[in-house]
Write a structure and sequence with these properties.
Elements lengths: L17 H16 L35 H24 L25 H11 L4 E6 L29 E6 L10 E5 H5 L6 H4 L2 E7 L2 E8 L7
Parallel strand pairs: 1-2, 1-3
Antiparallel strand pairs: 3-5, 4-5
Length: about 230
C-alpha cells in the first residue's frame, strides 16, 4: 500500500488479458457452432439399416503419431505474442507493474494512475545523504495520511513504511502549497500530468528520477545540492 487514490482504479491491469480473452471467446463460438465448410448446414440423409458387423484382422503396420507442423507453428506464434512481451517486461525491468510491456514506450505520454514510488525515493535519499532532513512527499490532501490520522480504514503510507530509518522525517506536502519548507521533495509524475507542475525554484534541483522501465514514477529534488552524495 503506497498511497490512497480517490478514484476507481485497477481496470488497466486487465489489458494484457484482452487478446487471450478475445481468442478464447472466438474459439468457444467456433466450437459451439462447429463452423467449418459443410458443417454449419448439413444436408439431410436417408437413414439406412445398420449393416452386420464383420470381424477383420488389421495387417497394416502401426503408424507413429506425428506433429502437425502447421498447428505447432500457430501455437508457438500465439504463445510468443500473448506471453512474450509481458514476460520480457516483468523479468527485465526493475519496478515493472503487472501490465508492463516493453514493446511500448512507457506511460509518460498518457495520463497514468500509477503508484508514485515514495518508498523507493526514500530509500534513495537514505543511501545518498548522511545528515537528518525533512522530506516532503507531494500528494493530494488525504492520500498519504499522517500518523494518528489513519481514519476508520487505518490506511496510511507511514503504516506500511515503518521500517525506513528515522534519520529523515517524511511528511505530506500539498502540490498547490505556496511554499515548501523541506530539505527534499518527492514529486510524482502523475501529479505533473494532472497539472501540478514542479515549482520553478525546484526545477533546477532535481537530483534523481525513479523509473520503472520507460515510465517515470517521481522526481527527487534537494534544496541543497551539496547534501547529495
Amino acid at each position: 500500500m503506497f498511497s490512497l487514490l480517490n478514484i476507481v482504479v485497477g481496470t488497466h491491469y486487465l489489458l494484457p488479458t484482452a487478446i487471450p480473452i478475445t481468442l478464447s471467446g472466438a474459439f468457444a463460438w467456433v466450437t459451439l457452432f462447429r463452423y467449418r465448410q459443410g458443417a454449419l448446414f448439413l444436408s439431410a440423409k436417408k437413414s439406412m439399416p445398420p449393416a452386420p458387423a464383420v470381424q477383420t484382422i488389421d495387417t497394416a503396420m502401426p503408424v507413429k503419431p506425428h506433429i502437425d507442423l502447421r498447428a505447432a507453428v500457430v501455437l508457438a506464434l500465439l504463445i510468443l505474442f500473448l506471453i512474450g512481451p509481458h514476460l520480457t517486461g516483468l523479468v527485465s525491468v526493475y519496478g515493472a507493474e503487472g501490465y508492463t510491456s516493453e514493446f511500448f514506450n512507457g506511460e509518460n505520454n498518457v495520463l497514468q494512475v500509477a503508484y508514485p514510488a515514495y518508498r523507493e525515493a526514500g530509500q534513495w535519499l537514505l543511501a545518498h545523504t548522511h545528515g537528518p532532513g525533512k522530506v516532503g512527499l507531494v500528494a493530494i490532501i488525504g492520500t498519504i495520511v499522517g500518523p494518528g490520522n489513519e481514519g476508520r480504514y487505518d490506511v496510511s503510507w507511514y503504516t506500511y513504511n515503518k521500517d525506513l530509518p528515522g534519520r529523515l522525517k517524511f511528511s505530506e506536502a500539498l502540490p498547490d502549497a505556496h511554499s515548501f519548507p523541506y530539505d527534499y521533495l518527492v514529486w510524482p509524475m502523475h501529479l505533473v500530468q494532472r497539472g501540478y507542475t514542479i515549482p520553478e525554484p525546484w526545477r533546477s534541483h532535481i537530483v534523481h528520477v525513479i523509473m520503472g522501465g520507460n515510465t517515470t514514477y517521481c522526481f527527487i529534488m534537494a534544496r541543497d545540492l551539496v547534501a547529495i552524495t
